[in-house]
Amino acid sequence: MATSSRLPRPPPLTDEEILSFFHDIAGSKTASHITYSLLEAKLRQVHDVLAPNPKKHHLHHPSRAELEGGAGLRDFLLSLLSGINNDDKEAAERISSEGEPLRTINAAFQISRDDFLNEVRKWDIPSPDQRRSAAQAAKASARAYLKRIPLRRKVAAYWSVSGPTCLFMALVIALQTGMGIWQGVTYLKDQPIRKALGWGVILAKFAAGALLPTLFFMLTSMSRWFITILRRSYFVSRFINADFHQDFHVRMAITCLVLATLHAIGHLAGDFLYASRPERVDALIAVDMPIRTYRNYVATIPGWSGLASIIMFWIIALLATPAVRRWSYEVFQISHLLMFPMICLLCVHDTKKLLQAPMIGYWLAFPGLLVVLERLHRLYRSFRAISARLQILDHETVCLTARHPRKKAWTYSAGQYILLQVPRLSRFQFHPFTISACVHDCLQVHIKTNSGNWTSALHALALEVGPEVDVQIAIDGPFGAPAQRFYDYRKSIIVGSGIGITPFVAALTDLEQKALQRGINPWRNRRRSSMQSAPSRPTSMSFEIPWVRLPQSAPSRPTSMSFGTPWLRSPRPSLTADDHNIEVVSMSDIRETRTRYRVQSCDQSTKSSFEEYLISMPLQQREGRKATATIETIAQRRVDFVWLVRDATHLLWFSDLLNRLTDIARFHRKQLEEKPISAARTSESPAELPVDLRVNTFITATAKNISTHVFRVLLDRYRSKSSSVSALTGLRTESSFGRPDLEAIMCNYYEDVVSTEGYRGDIGVFFCGTPSIGRVLADQCAQLTAQARSEDIDVRFHFLTEVFG
């Protein structure tokens, strides 16, 4: 099973860039050679910039330096110079091992410019595109891509992203228009009413007719319960894109405000004023209406209730503007509490039956009751404290981990999101965050803390309390999101930008836990309900996974190479590519050992590796056991995981999970290569076949200079005997630098899956991140689907974007 997709190869360094690299190391544009000490000094300088706070996988971390005898950077450097002055290099190695001063190495090892240029060419470093023209640079961006495609494809891409919303909005507008015309025409044709009340009643009733369904949709779109229910139905989801409910709510609210204002103008400046004139007395008597002054009209139940409602509505609208939300999100949320008295006033607004039977109460009964019950439930949840811990991952990311107060398994599903409240920051604010992982009684979310006042305050709170102190939180949810449809597709592409990858990481964590830990096939046992809890008892099923015997020279204590929460770590050992001594451990072994070793505390003291315990198990306990479900055929499910991050340190957020999945993928590929299966066997049990997971990470930050770019690529590729992970990212897979060519990635995927493998069916393309990237993916989905149709191939690419709020 391959661990990375076939990606387009960027052009290598040009001769000018290699020469610039040489000059940067030499410190002079006229130098004819560089010394080993200059090369090593530049490497150390760049390495300190790339990893100012070293982690365990970095070459200058104390634990790795001790493991490698303090020679990690030098070993890395000397491994690059295999073809330059071999005798001098050997002398340098001898001098280095003997501990001679650095000046001795300077004299022993010099590299000429021509030799250095030839050697760097062999490194195959991708060009940082420092010398590209403006047109070439623009061509690589998503916005430029959209500019150069034809208008027809732009419209198709927009329809793929916003089509469901547009279709549903058309139905909503039709209902609003129909109700408005019905009410307006009714009073337009009523000559006695028009003569008594004037033009104002027509305007007021037209606005009121359109206002009724608008209020219904506005309140319904506020209910996260209702949105979650809609996501359970595939048929309904085809017509109502619940992923855009927040944007839909804003649109309905603006429409409501306009219609309510027109309704108020029609009464206050129209029929109230017109009917209160003395010359209208005969006309009012003719339609059997009482004679009132302007003040008496306003003092009626419809008058004062409508006036109070419109004032509350405007207060809510003004305090919901982006400027107010940025200034104080708490003011925005508190102002929305005015909707409850506003709903009550609207329900009594037409109870006097001045012109017709009451109608508004019937439209507001269901959504109003739903919203009230949901808010009461949220209020109740806000007083149910849950202990959680905050860990700062970097300057803009915080990881929050909570455990179930009753030590029970959470009933949350992969891809859902929660509303989070931290009373120490605000008692009234609930903010939505995607669930990153949910394993047993532990739940984890990753929060970007540079996007608002509340998240900035959360970062400050994490600095204040530290990772060892519990903070009290409240959680409401879970609520549905597009990532829940991950198991609907046997072939899928996941594209995430920065923290936007968390919904899909949750899906991968769920896949790992249920497919390997519990022996459950998530595709075959897809949950119909997003609220359905996981089974309390694991299914008895054996599953062959690798077991690697450590060589005698291996360290006795495995080294954790990345961030990770102890109770979310996988109970499986990491693999190396060159191991051929593989034992088979069944899932029953894993579950038995897991039970004996189950982590009981969230303290840092529990971070000892599960692998150490499993390694210490006597060999005879594992010998003689035979797996009953060996993976021995080509993978029928494929997931391409594409993650864009600005900085290499961001990859540490989920490096443990990605490394574990990479290990499993490598083992599956090796097993399939050694023992392929016939097509007949493949067709018999497709549900039991392994998942072909391909991890691709892109670091998009531009290097400050050519030396930084070259060394970061080399460090990312470097693996040593003591560590099989990247010396830059801590991942087992290599990363790419720069923005991905999404068009080429999608085309290569089509060629691999459709043309080569012969797959037929639906392919899901999941995305969360910058909208411009989403439009590129949407356009490619439409184009590849059209290409398949033109080739008479039954393949459809479905674009699903992650939006919640």
Helix content: 40-55%
Mean of residue pLDDT values: 71
In CATH, the topology of the largest domain is named Rossmann fold
Question: How many domains make up the 3D coordinates?
Answer: 4
Shape: elongated
**Alpha-carbon Rg, integer:** 32 Å
What is the CATH level 1 assignment of the largest domain?
A: Alpha Beta
Q: How far do the termini sit from each other?
A: 37 Å
Residue ranges: pLDDT <50 for 5 or more in a row? 86-108, 130-140, 518-635, 678-688
Number of helix segments?
A: 32
Q: Report the count of strand segments.
A: 16
**In CATH, what is the homologous superfamily of the largest domain?**
Nucleotide-binding domain of ferredoxin-NADP reductase (FNR) module
CATH structural architecture of the largest domain:
3-Layer(aba) Sandwich
- Percent of residues in beta strands? 5-15%
Q: Determine the structural class based on helices, strands and strand pairing.
A: alpha/beta
User: Could you give the order of strands across the largest sheet?
Assistant: 3-4-7-6-5-8
| Main sheet attributes: strand count, strand direction, barrel closure | 6 strands, antiparallel, barrel
Keywords: Electron transport, Ion transport, Membrane, Oxidoreductase, Transmembrane, Transmembrane helix, Transport
GO biological process, one term: superoxide anion generation
Organism: Tilletia indica
Protein name: FAD-binding FR-type domain-containing protein
